What does this fold into?
Amino acid sequence: MKKIAVCNPNAGKGLSKRLLSTLIPVLQNDGIEIWMTRSKHDAEHRIRDWCNENPDLEVCFIISGGDGTMHEAVNGAAGHQHASFASIPTGSGNDFARYFGGFELDQDLSAAMERSTLSKHDVIRYKLNGGQTRTAVSNMGAGFDAEVAFSANQSPLKKLLNKLSIGKVVYVLFLVRQLMIFKPYSLEVTVHNKTFLFDKVWFATISNQPYYGGGMKIAPKADTRDGELDLTIVHGLSRIKFLFVFLSVFKGTHTKFKEVYHLRSEKVDLKAGADVRVHADGEDNGLLKENQRLTATAIPSEILISAKLALDES
It folds into this structure.
């Protein structure tokens, strides 16, 4: 099997760039081909081109970056039947590696991968506003959480604070700002051929695995091999109570609140009563337009993952 390391030097607020001096000799020692991404979407485009040129070759894409880089990689390899994925987590969230297990920078990578579990898992196949079909590995979100991440990432303040090694402060600042200005929205949800209407929705998430947002346990019982998606909707809360509930997501205790709605379904259809920002695997996907739809479907056993965590034993 061919191994290609796709390294994003800008992942993790620059953390990845600092770690590459350790990582590159490890990859070279193992004879692994190295690609350095140059810009956003570069990983997706290069992987797609390689897969189109080598449709019959088995390949493992080793992703050195964060959840966004993995998101690009999986979309680039969509339709390639012989691709698998592994993670060397150097991003800021690393929820993919948190669930599946990632590989360490200083270990014998080839030997570690041979000892790892290679297993099939579900993905989220989604379409936003009737547009192009895309794939998410871990989760999607619409509303408050997506607005916080988008606003923070667009802010010039982020670069300054990153240089001071206090980049996470910007997310706290924008969380507080969005808490004051965010307008909850109405949401029409269709699952199991039934339609439900929710008012004053703060955010809705569609999860394939438990973690999002850098360790927040949004869907504690989500499983990448059950053929279903976990839908979580937080609605009908005052701003103060919402903050309390939002912080409780880190421990996964938010599910105890009556304002947190949860269900499982193979397919989820959302229609918002206002323009709502959407993320997929933490990557901004633009706006779910008013009265347009976000449709998401669980595709069973669609992705091969090489991981340290032996999920097959659980």
Remarks:
- DSSP finds nine helices and 17 strands in the chain.
- The chain has two domains: 2-115, 127-301.
